[in-house]
Amino acid sequence: MRVGLIGYGYWGPNLARALNQTDKCEFVACCDANPRSLGKALRSYPSLKGFSSASELWDSVDAVVIATPIATHFELARQALLRGKHVMVEKPLAHSSRLAEELVELAERQSCTLMTGHTFIYSPPVNVVKNLIQDGTLGDIHYISLSRVNLGLYQKDVDVIWDLAVHDVSILLHWLDEMPVWGSSFGRACVQKDKNDVAFIWLQFPSGVVASIEISWLSPQKMRRTSIVGSKRMIVYDDTEPSEKIKIYDRGVVVKQPESFGEYQLTYRLGDMVAPSLSNVEPLLVEIDHFIECSISGRRPRTDGAFGLKVVQVLEGVAKSSVTVRPPAPTLVELEGVA
Ligand SMILES: NC(=O)c1ccc[n+]([C@@H]2O[C@H](COP(=O)([O-])OP(=O)(O)OC[C@H]3O[C@@H](n4cnc5c(N)ncnc54)[C@H](O)[C@@H]3O)[C@@H](O)[C@H]2O)c1
Questions:
Q1: Looking at ligand 1, which atom is closest to the CA of residue 163?
Q2: pLDDT of 339 strictly over 50
Q3: 7: domain range?
Q4: 67 CB under 6 A from ligand 1?
Q5: Is residue 289 part of a domain?
Q6: How many whole angstroms separate alpha carbon 202 and alpha carbon 199?
Q7: Which tens digits make up the pLDDT trace of 31-60?
Q8: Which of 9, 83, 228, 243 is the most exposed place for a label (fewest CB within 10 A)?
Q9: Ligand 1, atom 9: nearest CA belongs to which residue?
Q10: Which residues pair with 274 in a beta bridge?
Q11: Which pairing describes strands 210-216 and 114-117: parallel, antiparallel, or unpaired?
Q12: How many domains does the chain have?
């Protein structure tokens, strides 16, 4: 299978490395509208054919990986699918659910693989947590709280929800296997005038699980920290930890039947902490291999177009309900009797 890469900006070089490393396909071409970026790609991989426009690329490839700005995903993926090419689009699949849906339908009609680059779904710690949720180790999940903040790379075209929360929403959908029934967000545009660089998202799922996602490009420290609190056990998943990314705590609060009147009814379980060993495969390599295998076999990718569409539906929903605070902040709730 001959594969081409469209977009060699910030993220494209990582995909190029994975495409070059795998023995499952031939990495044959790169396309970037910016001559400097294309030049960099061709210097790093001299055997590639280089193109400045996707329209010149199609005849050279059987499949493409698209790593261009979000607003261009739909049209590039549509053009590729119309020509019968298998497509992997970087996250998010498209900038609206209507367009994402159109891509899913087109891929179906063309019998082509359509995959979204939700890298975390191929990451060992994320999948270890999924197994612990599914096999009942954690009990009933009460809530999940996710933080993804740092002094990050500001995006020109999208706000922090469409850039960073994409990861967290994809992780939550993968873990819980259900769509939220309620969602909202709240944020503030601190540096750029019209794009939130900090936001907080709240979601509620049919099973009762509630989740909060904190995302920011404007934070002094890098934090990639998730707590999952269940009725039997609790987990802290810290993706910045070099080892022991997952810590499983045998902790909780137990309601005891009182033996005498007035006895305090809650007791705390403070058991051991276990840090399971994790495979150290690189998620991006697993993701690219999976895309190639699915394109060849016709198997449905784990993060197929339908999964990518669900993520876009959630992002769109919370972005619509978003409240953006601009200074001076309004008084949101006036409490009677509070000075
Ligand atoms: N999976 C991840 O963890 C991850 C991480 C970062 C970025 N991304 C995704 O990767 C994509 C690209 O992000 P980025 O930060 O690399 O953006 P970027 O702006 O740094 O790079 C995009 C590149 O695409 C080129 N380009 C734009 N329009 C084009 C067109 N029509 N045809 C050909 N080339 C075109 C630009 O010249 C540029 O070199 C986004 O969808 C982003 O969400 C994913």
A1: 43
A2: no
A3: 2-120+297-303
A4: yes
A5: no
A6: 10
A7: 999 999 999 999 999 999 999 999 999 999
A8: 243
A9: 90
A10: 248
A11: unpaired
A12: 2
